[in-house]
Amino acid sequence: MPFIAIKVFEKELSAAQTASLIQDVTEAVLPFVGEGLRDSTWIVVEEVKSGAWGIGGKAFRLDDVRSVQAKPGQSPLK
User: Which residues of the chain have pLDDT under 70?
Assistant: First the structure.
C-alpha cells in the first residue's frame, strides 16, 4: 500500500488545490504500483506553520515561498 506524505505551509493551498494535488499524485504513482492499488494509495497533505520550516539553516516562511513564486529561478536561500 503506497503512503505518500506531502508537506506544505499552512494556508499555502486552497481546498481545491489540495484535492487536485491528491488526485494528481495518485495518478502519478499508479504506473509504478499498478492500478490495483488505487484504492489502497494514501496521500496525506500535512500543513506546517510558517517559519517552522528550515532550508540551509534559515527559517523559511510562507512569504518567502510567495517571493520565490513571483520570481522564477530565485533560490529560497537568498
Answer: 74-78
